[in-house]
User: Fold these one by one.
Assistant:
Number 1:
Amino acid sequence: MARITLEQIFIHPITQKYLGRSGVAHAVAVAEHAYSFAQRYHVDPDLATKAALLHDVGHYTWYRDGEWDYELYRENDIHAIKGASRAHKLLIRIGEDRHAAKEIAVAILLHTDSYLPEGNLKLKPLQYVVALADEADEELGGKHHYREIDDTEALERIRMLDLRIGNRSGEQNNQII
Ligand SMILES: [Fe+2]
Ligand SMILES: [Fe+2]
């Protein structure tokens, strides 16, 4: 079975809709960080980059009087839960392997512990890599969600990751030129 590419996931209207909320630039940067961390921690870069790309698709917009309200967000946010479910549905729809879709969804579910009761989670390497990649791109005050990126640049960087992952597994990826 041909690998589902990051590009296929990235250009899907559902991904575009929800990344529009949480920030395309952040998603692309976290996917790149996840690729590097995956090498370091011997994690499958295909799963790590897919989870990283989709990790924030569960965000809701917590605006009050036109401004993002962090208190409202902290109290009510479940974006990791929603994102895991949304990403899983999308991945299955575009033909991702069921086991891979579950691994990716669980990594998204656990990329933050901000919605969980106090206490340390024992993360598996894939989950740790995705959480670490997210942290590596975080800016104070949630500014990483608002960073802009040109559409062409975003797609080029996604294609570059596909190329690196494809080469690594020795695959021929016909979609990438
Ligand atoms: Fe997040
Ligand atoms: Fe994030």
Number 2:
Amino acid sequence: MAERSGGAYMHNERPIRPEPDEIPKIKSAMRVARIMKWGTRPVSGLMGIVVLLIAVNHPWYIAAAWYVGILSPLILFGRLFGRCPRCGKTWGSQGPFRLFYESEDETESMVCGRCRLDIGLGLRGP
Ligand SMILES: [Zn+2]
């Protein structure tokens, strides 16, 4: 019983301290997550306008293909590099996909929504 209270069963209380080798990964992943958060909003807004202009003279599916073709590399970039080094969860709100489901925002909570890795501690580390 004594080892159970040691800390392996924490869920919502205390975040997990990152390992030293995870700290640089946390820093770069959080940088990408922030770029995704603040970068995709103006880009998707601008693309909305461009797509509307395309849709005036072209079939809707051409406009939709433009939208997907420009936004998906951005989202892929965030998915590949803005991930938790421990559990692989993509951090931050999912740009335009936030419209479809409410996701946790690690750029605000500073704790990984899946494995409770302490992101704030990783950013402050050496
Ligand atoms: Zn995690």
